[in-house]
Every structure is written in structure tokens, then in C-alpha cells.
Amino acid sequence: MAQGETVLVLGATGGIGGEVARQLRDAGWGVRGLRRGAGASKGDGIEWIQGDAMNAADVMRAARGASVVVHAVNPPGYKRWAELVLPMIDNTIAAAKAQGATIVLPGTVYNFGPDAFPFIDEDAPQHPVTRKGAIRVEMEARLQRASMEGARVLIVRAGDFFGPKAGNNWLAQGLVKPGKPVTKISNPGARGIGHQWAYLPDVARTMVELLAHRHSLDAFARFHMGGYWDEDGTRFVDAIRRVVARRTGHEPSVGGFPWWLLALAAPFNVTFRELQEMRYLWATPVHLNNARLVQTLGHEPHTPLDVAIEKTLIGLGCLTTDLHASKSSCTS
């Protein structure tokens, strides 16, 4: 337990930030969340502070007395990444240095290029092939400098996020349609090409457990999660089919992802353009090595795949919480 310790979560209204905030609260932390809008939720055990992660003074004020700052904020819909991401991390760094706090960053595989593929250690060279990857590299470089200037840093990298409240993610944006029964699954990957996934509650649990060890970790500590490794690009989709069939009695079909349509729409849609840029991650196996994490914790928090997918589809409104109703609606 972390009785008496305070954590500030930037991005607490989003997917990973919200999950980390809830799990830290349940672990005994005093949790603050920064949000732009008024009318904060009451009764959720989180102290909501009005402010903007782009405003240095707001972040500095919200971080007073905090021993940890979770930086889980990103521009919505991938918009204005180049001009917003680095100023936001600079605000977090300044606040953490002032408090002598630990910064927690949910990391990605964007940092790495082909010279690090396919099995990637935490210290692999970072030569990204995309604009977002270059920004991620710069974020981590700034965090490493901050770790030499009074802050501590904990980075947890994982595969493609999914979960009941994951926000922007491939499962919800590409494989199924939120709010609708799953009758067809679009698979963005090519058969035979491995792909890595990460269940959001497992990622949050990993961060919570690592924070309990933070004083014994390096000042600049990086860990990779194994998550779910789909070794041939079909097992994740097969798990969705299996869960839906069990819940509804109907097995959805599987088709290819319409990359051609994404390419046509990319010039007119920022989100499509950013998704198109990350297509290379579906064309080559990219597998994170979690040996350091397992050595540190003795295990990796891991929810069985079918359970994780079922909870995710319920959260997306693709399955009802009532098993009997699911089967009835399918046959009616």
C-alpha cells in the first residue's frame, strides 16, 4: 500500500491514464487528476483539478506534494502531435523536478526501427522510421536528462493497447465497430506476421507494481511487457471469433483490413493519415522482450486472452453483459 503518498495523473480522463488512476487509488495512493473541463466527477476517490497539461503553471500547481507524476496525456485523435507532445512532456518534467518526483510514461514500440527488430530489448538502438517515432525518441531523451537533474523516470513499453476503456486503439478502430454486434472482423495484419498486444488493465497493474519498487530501480528505468504475442497474425482475431461465438452462438467472419481505403482518405483525415503511417508495424514482426520486467517483479501481470477480449467487447458495446440476452438477440 502507498498510504499518504500522492500521485498526479495527466490524462486521467483517457484510456491508460484513467486505468492507472483507478488502480493507484485502489492501491492506497492519493490520486489527483488534471482535466480541462469543469464539473469533475464526485465519489470516484480521485481529486480532480481543473487545468491544462499544455499550461506549465497548471501542471506545476497540480503536482505540489506529489511523489509521482503519470504522463498519460496525448493530443486527441493524433492531431497536432508535432507541436503539442514535446511542450507537454516539458511541463511534466519541470513539475517533477520541482517535487523530486518520479515520472511514469506509458511507452510504445514507435521508438524502434528495422535495425532493432524483431525481438527488442529495452536498450536497443532507437532509429525510428516515422514522425511519431522521432517524437517519442526525443521525449525519452528529455526524460533521461531529467533523471540526471532531480527527477526519476519509469517507462513501461507495451504492444498495441486494447481494453474496455482504451480510447484510440486498433481493436476498436480497425478490427470491430464499437456499439455494434461483431459480425465481421477486419484483420490489419498479414498471415504469418507476428503482432504484439497489451491489455490496458495489465499495463496499469504493471506500473503500479513497479512503482512499489521505484526507490530500488535505476533513476532512468525502462521495462518491456510481453503482453500477448500473436505469433502468426491470426490468433488474436481467432480469440475474438471464439469469444463472440461462445457469447452469441454466431461466429463472425474475418476479412482483410481496407488499407487502400485508408490511403485514399489519409490526405483528408488526420487519424487515417497517422494510422497509415504505422502500417509497417503490421508488415513485420515487432516483439518486446520482457525478461527485465520478470526479473524485477518475478512475473508479469497477465489476464487470460479470452477474458481480456470479452471484457473489452462488453466495454465497447459489442457484447451485452447478460449472456442470455446476447444469445437471444443473435437469434431473434
UniProtKB/TrEMBL annotation:
SUPFAM superfamilies named among the record's database cross-references: NAD(P)-binding Rossmann-fold domains (SSF51735)
Domain NAD-dependent epimerase/dehydratase, by residue range, is 7-217
- GO MF term set: aldehyde dehydrogenase (NAD+) activity
Q: What is this protein called?
A: Membrane protein
Species for this entry:
Caballeronia grimmiae
A Gene Ontology CC term for this entry? cytoplasm
